Amino acid sequence: MAHCSSCSSSSSSSSQSRGFCPFSLFLFIGSAIASVRYLKRREQSSSRKLDDDDDDDDDDDDDDVEEDRPSPFRVVFVLGGPGAGKGTQCQLLSENLGWAHLSAGDLLRAERAKADSKLADVINSNISAGRIVPSEITVELLRNAMEEMYSGENRQTKFLIDGFPRSEGNVIAWNEVVGNRANVETVLFFECPEDVLTSRLLERSKTSGRVDDTIDVIRKRFDTYKEESMPIIEMYEKDGRVKKIIADRSMEEVYKEIEAILGE
Ligand SMILES: Nc1ncnc2c1ncn2[C@@H]1O[C@H](COP(=O)(O)OP(=O)(O)O)[C@@H](O)[C@H]1O
Ligand SMILES: Nc1ccn([C@H]2C[C@H](O)[C@@H](COP(=O)(O)OP(=O)(O)O)O2)c(=O)n1
Description:
By secondary structure, this protein is of the alpha/beta class. It is about 55% helix and about 10% strand.
């Protein structure tokens, strides 16, 4: 127990002589309570579960997002293999339904392209190798984009987040940085056979100018998708938020199905 200097002057000398100090006991109990609270908060912040609805103590001191927003952002995560048509559909939906389209890949490529970006090298090395960029980078870009769109004229509050979360690290970082400030209502999962994905990506490579639309990197992206992204989709399937979209159909058919889901 900590030494209590006040005891040596004013506390009961008989208590002190028996080794008992009320003030030290008070300090000890206080610091024990603080430690338990700290550990509890750490545990909550690293939780993998999105939208922890019964969160009870962290709303007041989280200054990551604006305090004046009346309700959480509405979010739909859009997942599926590379080339499944996520970007194509999100673009159409944002034009027609008023959901903002935020592509994690586009945000990373835009950051990489900035002349003064300190993150360009790390983004580039991971994308070129078909790997996932460190999650804190991607989540920070997403959060900034959401806040910026909310602060703008349109006061945007509905977001289709395309290509995210793609890994356990993505989920953890989202929980820490955005957490309950967004409500992930639905996860759209574009299911499409690998041979179709490959031919779409090779076709896209003719015009995309993307360094990762080459057959070698495409194979690595498929591996990353199976190893890191599929478990995340399975996790969301268990909590009932996944709507499976058969993506190996015409753009119009896929669009109609998603439009109906978002209109529900
Ligand atoms: N339903 C579809 N049928 C055929 N081609 C498609 C379809 N949806 C998208 N594409 C094409 O496939 C390529 C990959 O689509 P994209 O939206 O960029 O996929 P993702 O964002 O999932 O990587 C693009 O060239 C796109 O024009
Ligand atoms: N959540 C994300 C999304 C994309 N990335 C990186 C790694 C991906 O291979 C590239 C490209 O992603 P993007 O979603 O644009 O492309 P595909 O769906 O693979 O066609 O960006 C990431 O590291 N983390």
